[in-house]
Amino acid sequence: MKKFLTLSLVVCLVFALSACTKVENVDETKAEVVASTESPRVAELNIMMSIPQYMDQWDTYVKQFEAKMLAEENIKVKVNLEMPSSDQYESVLQARLTGGDAPDLYTLHSNNISTYDKAGNLTDLSAEPLAAKIYENVKETVSLDGRLLGVPLESQAWGVLYNKDIFKDAGVEIPKTLDDLKNITEVLKAKGYTPFMLAYQEQWVPQLMTALTLGGKVSGELPDWVDRMYKDNGSYEEVLDIFGPIDLIMANGNDRAMEMGSESGAAEFAMGKAAMFVQGTWASGTIMATNPDMKLGVFALPVNNNEACTLVNLSTSTTLAVHPDSKEMDLALKFANYVLDDQDSAALFQACSFNPLATVHNYEPSSWVADASAFVAAGKSYKDLVLPQAVTEEQGKLLQEYYVKTITKEDFVKRMDEVFKSSNK
């Protein structure tokens, strides 16, 4: 009888434990179901970028990020992507930064990192996973005092874009000196081609000529010029021969340059309306979308007849920063890291025709990128000059005025010296 009672108690205990276990399992399952059906957190992220020519590519990437956050983090994030025109970008951004309405992420030129850092507008990204992926020589261009202050986007070498088929038909080679460029210009005209595409409606486009010519002149012959200008001990009079190529270009291009914007200029160039275009490789997106069969090339713009001054520009022209006062800092950092995502980043950078700049970029660069990179490999490049923002903007504005003949070279020199000294104060 005792054995029977003991056995009954054991059986009951087993059933009881089994029932408890089932209840616990049911409770855990219910918890998992609740967790999986929990409403996603709703958030907004504001991103402001200065590269409207890549709006389609970044809009697609933003949507990928939104989907990733919902699937992996259960966050329903709405990214507001804003891309003002290049001429308006700086003023719009400054108004936002000083008005207490700073975007969570925004782009800037790497030359301006020090200025933005002093104003307290940059977040140190050194401890983020993205930091380990960036090539060291590129990382240096977006770092200050050992701190990584932005995600590099456009790290590139650039010079003059040219139509390889037109050059082949005219029987000309890329120039090494200003005399070479003059000869090419005459041959192209004799063959019925317009030598240069001029699109000066936006002041940043003619400014590209000063970026290239000053960079070549200073790097090749006056390496201390920029330092002396910052000390009020230099003058644009010393670099007056930058007008050699500028005058040549302006005199041998299409009509009504002030009515032509950068995008329409790129499209016209793509259709063979001119043989050369002083525009960076960032214009390749519009060019190749307009004419996918175009054979696009890059060469260094000669400043004078000293080949040591015929160099391409090497820079990180567009950098993505995270504002330290972001109300969605965690999300902002996630997006910054997603820009160099192991799986998705390479396709984005390739679609934008950006140079590979991180270990996750395993794609073959475009032929025109390879052309420019060959100059770098041959030691025929210079690091982008760091000039005050006001100086850069004034150069573009004055070249517009010079094109329409409302100022002279002497006016240009006088005004630029004044602006540089004013910026130093």
TL;DR of this structure?
The chain has 425 residues and is an alpha/beta fold. It has 17 helices and 12 strands.
List the helices and strands and how they pair.
Elements: H1 2-37, E1 41-48, H2 55-73, E2 75-82, H3 86-98, E3 105-108, H4 113-118, H5 136-139, E4 143-144, E5 147-148, E6 151-158, E7 160-163, H6 164-170, H7 178-190, E8 196-197, H8 204-221, H9 225-230, H10 243-251, H11 262-270, E9 276-277, H12 284-290, E10 296-299, E11 312-322, H13 329-338, H14 345-351, H15 367-377, E12 381-383, H16 389-403, H17 409-424
Helix pairs in contact: 8-16, 11-12, 16-17
What can you tell me about this protein's structure?
The chain is α/β, with parallel strands linked by helices and 425 residues long. Helices cover 48% and strands 14% of the residues. It has 17 helices and 12 strands. It has helices at residues 2-37, 55-73, 86-98, 113-118, 136-139, 164-170, 178-190, 204-221, 225-230, 243-251, 262-270, 284-290, 329-338, 345-351, 367-377, 389-403, 409-424; strands at residues 41-48, 75-82, 105-108, 143-144, 147-148, 151-158, 160-163, 196-197, 276-277, 296-299, 312-322, 381-383. Strands 1, 2, 3, 6, 11 and 12 form a 6-stranded mixed sheet that branches. Strands 8-9-7-10 form a 4-stranded mixed sheet. Strand 1, helix 2 (55-73) and strand 2 form a beta-alpha-beta unit. Helix 8 (204-221) packs across helix 16 (389-403), helix 11 crosses helix 12 and helix 16 (389-403) packs antiparallel against helix 17. The model is unreliable at 1-35 (pLDDT under 50).
